[in-house]
User: Which sequence fits this backbone?
């Protein structure tokens, strides 16, 4: 009925651009994309459109092409919008997302910058991710130095982001610059110790390559000393000590970690592994029971979806926020 009324409207008033736009949009919503595209494309040839109307027409056409999964034509329509209104946030955001989908990382970064200048809110972390992706692309093209420049740029946007340090070091390794790689990975230990574990294996391997394997223990102990909640450092140090043959010290480190991280299932699993290799069945069973006791509860908890109040009994009226039927029962 809406389509019929709109057809009547445009027949009576061919200058009614809004009616044409709405008719095309209705066809798109009904998944009749060829008709939607035809109507919206015909509107682009009209010479009597205002600047605002042109933007609306190209936006509708871009939506049609996006729904039809025709990315090149969608981008073409979006570029028309940006020619008419270079700070159109809708167009900039759509363009950026399409560039990301096409893995055009450099283009997406440029568009993200323009979106921010237009009052958008692209997070620094997202900008850093785009730089990292561009750096990886350049490294795959054997442009290692250019790739490292992108990783360095990423750090300017988010100095605690682990990825650029990881891949920057990898790039140095491919050029056999082992000591440079180690320096970069050590920087990650300083700026983001909580994510430092992603370079632990690399550090161990390449410190061994340069004859500095004993430094591994110092690195882990320093992390534990400065960040006693870093369970990955305890686990890595324990593994290192066990590999060296110091099984007793390896177990002692895990127990120390549990003193500072009493709820850690991860460290208990490591203890089970260590005791299992020692064939200490009693301790394996004891820790396994402890893990089960922590994981399996005797009863159920019911949480109010409105305010978060927790009840051990099923309720249909929250005593805290007074809302009805908000508990997951």
Assistant:
């Amino acid at each position: 009925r809406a389509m019929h009324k709109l057809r009547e409207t445009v027949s009576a008033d061919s200058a009614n651009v809004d009616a044409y736009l709405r008719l095309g949009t209705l066809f798109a919503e009904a998944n009749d994309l060829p008709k939607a595209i035809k109507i919206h494309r015909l509107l682009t040839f009209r010479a009597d459109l205002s600047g605002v109307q042109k933007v609306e027409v190209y936006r509708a056409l871009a939506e049609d092409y996006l729904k039809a999964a025709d990315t090149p034509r969608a981008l073409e329509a979006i570029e028309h919008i940006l020619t008419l209104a270079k700070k159109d946030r809708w167009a900039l955001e759509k363009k950026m997302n399409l560039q990301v989908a096409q893995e055009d990382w450099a283009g997406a970064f440029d568009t993200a910058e323009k979106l921010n200048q237009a009052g958008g809110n692209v997070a620094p972390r997202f900008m850093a991710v785009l730089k990292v992706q561009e750096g990886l692309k350049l490294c795959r093209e054997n442009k290692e130095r250019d790739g490292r420049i992108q990783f360095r740029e990423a750090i300017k946007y988010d100095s605690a982001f682990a990825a650029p340090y990881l891949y920057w070091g990898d790039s140095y390794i491919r050029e056999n610059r082992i000591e440079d790689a180690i320096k970069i990975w050590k920087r990650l230990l300083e700026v983001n110790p909580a994510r430092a574990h992603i370079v632990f294996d690399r550090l161990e391997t390449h410190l061994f390559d340069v004859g500095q394997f004993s430094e591994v223990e110092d690195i882990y102990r320093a992390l534990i000393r400065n960040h006693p909640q870093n369970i990955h450092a305890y686990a890595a140090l324990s593994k290192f000590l066990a590999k060296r043959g110091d099984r007793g010290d390896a177990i002692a480190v895990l127990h120390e970690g549990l003193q500072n991280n009493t709820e850690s299932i991860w460290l208990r699993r490591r203890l089970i592994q260590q005791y299992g290799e020692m064939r200490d069945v009693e301790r394996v069973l004891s820790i396994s029971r402890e893990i089960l006791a922590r994981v399996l509860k005797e009863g159920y908890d019911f949480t109010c979806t409105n305010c978060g109040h927790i009840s051990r009994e099923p309720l249909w009226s929250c005593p805290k926020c007074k809302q009805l039927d908000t508990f997951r029962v």
